[in-house]
Amino acid sequence: DTGVSQNPRHKITKRGQNVTFRCDPISEHNRLYWYRQTLGQGPEFLTYFQNEAQLEKSRLLSDRFSAERPKGSFSTLEIQRTEQGDSAMYLCASSASSGTGELFFGEGSRLTVL
Amino acid sequence: KNQVEQSPQSLIILEGKNCTLQCNYTVSPFSNLRWYKQDTGRGPVSLTIMTFSENTKSNGRYTATLDADTKQSSLHITASQLSDSASYICVVSADNYGQNFVFGPGTRLSVLP
């Protein structure tokens, strides 16, 4: 068990560019979540996958954001036409479908939009 | 509106001292309350999880308490260490689905030598 892996850890981009983040969850976990966290705040839910199906999306997830989880393994989060307000830490978490639903978070991908 | 409030916003203590962090919530219905530790620039790590029927749970030097009647929880850290410097986030939910977790803003703890 190598934990949840996210990359890149840091991304600096210019406004208007597209960025993509990748998350590799714990292999036996079928639930995968994306959250966004800004300084001094707790994580905010963005979207949820059960296996390869995207079952829920937050209103925070504008049409510039898209997430996929092909084959129910790794997931990607793409932000198109980035804006300065997109600057944040993007956290991925996975959990098993049974038990307490404990979330195992990755180290996060920090996005800075200039 | 479901909310989780934490106090204080930040706290500075000396190494070896004890401290208590507070969490108040208005989440309803309520199923469980979790405390996470988040080091700067890292992802949160689970410390404890308590259901509505539990009123205390320990994890090493960390002890969480829960009063479901007053909708309050506390996290007590004993004999603090420099490595305890982090943000501590209280999370309340009605179920075990992460999309329904309500995260507090966290308390930033700094432990000084």
Task: Supply database-style keywords.
heterodimer; A: mainly beta; 11 strands; B: 113 residues; mainly beta; 6-stranded mixed sheet; 5-stranded antiparallel sheet
Number of helices of chain A: 0
Return residue spans of chain B where pLDDT drops below 50 for at least 5 consecutive residues.
none
The end-to-end span of chain B amounts to 41 Å
| Portion of residues within helices of chain A | under 10%
The assigned structural class of chain A equals mainly beta
Q: What is the rounded Rg of chain A?
A: 13 Å
Uncertain runs of chain A: none
Describe the 3D structure.
- Chain A is mainly β and 114 residues long.
- Chain A is 0% helix and 49% strand.
- Chain A has strands spanning 5-7, 10-13, 19-24, 31-37, 44-50, 53-57, 65-68, 75-79, 88-95, 104-105, 109-113.
- Chain A is globular.
- Chain B has 113 residues and is mainly beta.
- Helices cover 0% and strands 55% of the residues of chain B.
- Chain B is built from no helices and 11 strands.
- The relative contact order of chain B is 0.34.
- Classes of the chains: A mainly beta (114), B mainly beta (113).
- The A-B interface holds A 4, 6, 31, 33, 40-45, 48, 56, 58, 91, 93, 95, 99-108, 110 and B 4, 32, 34, 41-46, 49, 89, 91, 95-99, 101, 103-106, 108.
Give the helices and strands, then pairings.
The complex is a heterodimer of chains A (114) and B (113).
Chain A: E1 5-7, E2 10-13, E3 19-24, E4 31-37, E5 44-50, E6 53-57, E7 65-68, E8 75-79, E9 88-95, E10 104-105, E11 109-113
Chain B: E1 4-7, E2 10-14, E3 19-25, E4 32-38, E5 45-51, E6 56-59, E7 62-67, E8 72-77, E9 86-93, E10 102-103, E11 107-112
Parallel strand pairs in B: 2-11
Antiparallel strand pairs in B: 1-3, 3-8, 4-5, 4-9, 6-7, 7-8, 9-10, 9-11
